[in-house]
Amino acid sequence: MKKIISLTIVLSLCLIVFCGCSRSDDGAPYGMKLVSDPEINKYYSLYVPEGWTTDMTTGITSAYVSAVDRSNISVTYEVPKENSIAEYWDNRVKQFDSIFDSFEIVEAGVNTKLGQADAARYTYKATYNGSEYQFMQLFAVQGVYLFTFTYTALNEENDLGKIPFDSNLETVYKIIENFRFE
What we know:
Layout: H1 2-20, E1 32-34, E2 44-45, E3 47-49, E4 53-55, E5 61-64, E6 72-78, H2 85-93, H3 96-99, E7 102-114, E8 117-128, E9 131-142, E10 145-154, H4 164-167, H5 169-178, E11 180-181
Antiparallel strand pairs: 1-3, 2-11, 4-5, 5-6, 6-10, 7-8, 8-9, 9-10
C-alpha cells in the first residue's frame, strides 16, 4: 500500500511539473510573456523573456532587455510593392547611406525560420551618431504581408566587457523560435 501511495505522489508531482511548465494562459512559453496585443494584432504572437520591458509607445510591437541594456526586438508588417524578399532588401539597402554614417553587410539572404515560417536573414553593422550597432532582420511572407523581425543592439564592448549584440543572441533566437503566425 505504501508503494502505491508513493507512486501516486511521484506521478502527481511529475504531472504538476511537466504540465505547469509548458505554457501560460495566454500561450506564452515558460519564462516568457506575450508582447503583441491579440485585440489589436490578429496576425502573429510575439513572446519575450518575462524580464524584458515591452515598448508599444511607437505603435510598433517591440521590447528591450532593460534600462541599462537597450538591445531590442521589433516586428512590423506591410504589403510590399516588391515581388520578392531579395528585391525588398535591395531597395532598403539603397536608403542606408542616408540613414547611417557607415554600414557593412555581414550576411544576406540566409534561409532560416521565423517561428514555423520560411524566412530570409540579413545581418549588418552600422554606425549611427558615433556608436556601432549590429542589426539582424528576418523577413517572412505570410499571405499578402511581409513581416520584418528586427533585432538591434550595440556592437561595442560595454562596461561589463561584453558586446550586447553577442550576449543577447541566444535569447533572441529563443524569441524567434517561439514566434507564431496566427
